[in-house]
Design goal:
This protein is α/β, with parallel strands linked by helices. The chain has 14 helices and 13 strands.
Length: 410
């Protein structure tokens, strides 16, 4: 047989397996006819591929429709379902003050979650690695699953991350503490380990489950304590040579923005200025508050309740957000800027003011500014979604899903 023909057959076989598996991963119960309609293969090829995926443990064949009382005439159709619990994925949000782990099935359904607080003042690479391992172990125990069942693991960190999962040197060592080479420390835990910047995972989450579903050009803006941006252009997440695409220290030099500080400290600063200047309207609940203990959530909760002073404070932060959105719109021509993270729940007045303040001199159409609905767990959601992406892309290459005869030879 010619060499080209020898290599073409396995390639076509793999292509067919990939097509059917993609359909099965998202389907409920399905038949060969359903699969043929979805992927366009012949009946004999489809049945052959379904049998192989079943042998690999990725599909299960269900009792036929007649046994289930749903079919009465003719030959009953064979029915299949995807084995979402055949293995697990792990998503980790390794934030500055916490490490949260989620164990999920192959479709991203949560099986268990655990959270461990860490003291940023006593942090070190070794402590952070131990914390990550401990919280994943605890979560596996809660999920009643084992390390051997993990096929993909993703860690989100507040640091730039390059293509190899490593972070560049930071002048005070912060990035090395946040990402103490998790790609190495978890290498023995899973065949696929992915480490990403937390804002990049926010973008993964928004595209999979949030305000950017169906949108190729957008920015997921983690906007709490500091701005961090996950940028998608033409449906591709931007990373950069050192993983620094979306780092926002450049806002130090943008007029009207002034720094990378996020919406929360800006709201607090604006509230304190209003208290100190005595410009709060009569009857505002902010007037009687201690400026030293004031926090952004309190201000935004009051704004949501209609407090005039709190609303004025929140709206005063809008122009800075408008400047951030304008920069991303001008540089990357994005369609949407999604304000993400815990702050998004109360960011409505800020966003309304930002939309009104966004400059009309961008030449390009300005991006929409919208609030995320994914809440404070967005990085965890993105980490799980990224781990599922890895599992989907490489399931057929994993030892756990090899054919029985190949596992026996191994």
């Amino acid at each position: 047989m010619p060499r080209d023909a020898m290599t073409a057959a396995p390639s076509l076989r793999r292509h067919n397996l990939d097509q059917v598996l993609r359909h099965a991963w998202d389907a409920d119960v399905f038949t060969a006819s359903d699969t043929i309609a979805a992927v366009g293969l012949t009946r004999s090829t489809t049945i052959d591929v379904l049998d192989e995926l079943t042998a690999r443990g990725l599909l299960a064949e269900l009792p036929n429709a007649r046994v289930g009382g749903e079919y009465s005439k003719g030959r009953p159709a064979r029915r299949f379902t995807f084995q979402s619990t055949a293995a697990v994925v792990v998503g980790i949000d390794a934030g500055r003050g916490h490490v949260t782990a989620t164990v999920a099935d192959l479709r991203g359904g949560t099986l268990a979650t655990s959270r461990l607080a860490v003291d940023p003042e006593l942090d070190s690479p070794a402590r952070r690695r131990r914390a990550g391992e401990a919280v994943v172990n605890a979560t596996l125990t809660r999920a009643k699953r084992s390390r051997a069942e993990i096929v993909a693991l993703c860690v989100g960190v507040p640091a730039p991350v390059d293509r190899r999962g490593r972070s560049p040197v930071h002048h005070d060592g912060f990035w090395a503490r946040m990402n103490p080479d998790f790609v190495d420390s978890f290498a023995s835990w899973a065949p696929m380990v992915r480490v990403e910047n937390d804002a990049t995972l926010a973008a993964v989450a928004e595209r999979a489950h949030g305000a950017a579903v169906g949108c190729d050009d957008f920015v997921a803006l983690l906007a709490g304590e500091r701005f961090g941006a996950g940028i998608s252009v033409d449906g591709r997440l931007l990373r950069g040579a050192h993983g620094g695409a979306g780092e926002t220290v450049a806002f130090d030099r943008v007029e009207g923005v002034g720094s990378a500080w996020g919406l929360a400290p800006r709201v607090v600063d604006a509230a304190r200025e209003a208290l100190a200047s005595g410009t709060l309207p009569a009857g505002s609940a902010l007037s009687g508050m201690d400026a030293d203990t004031l926090d952004a959530k309190t201000v935004l909760d009051l704004a949501a309740a209609g407090d005039a002073g709190a609303l004025a404070v929140a709206r005063s932060v809008g122009p800075a957000l408008a400047g951030v959105a304008a920069v991303f719109g001008s540089l990357f021509d994005v369609q949407r800027v999604v304000v993400s993270g815990a702050i998004a729940a109360g960011a409505g007045p800020i966003i309304e003011a930002a939309v009104a303040a966004i400059p009309d001199s961008l030449h390009l159409p300005p991006p929409q500014i919208v609030a995320s609905t994914l809440g404070a767990d967005i990085v965890s959601i993105g980490a799980v979604a990224a781990a599922v992406e890895s599992a989907r892309a490489h399931a057929l290459d994993l030892d756990v899903f090899a054919l029985p005869e190949d596992r026996a030879r191994a």
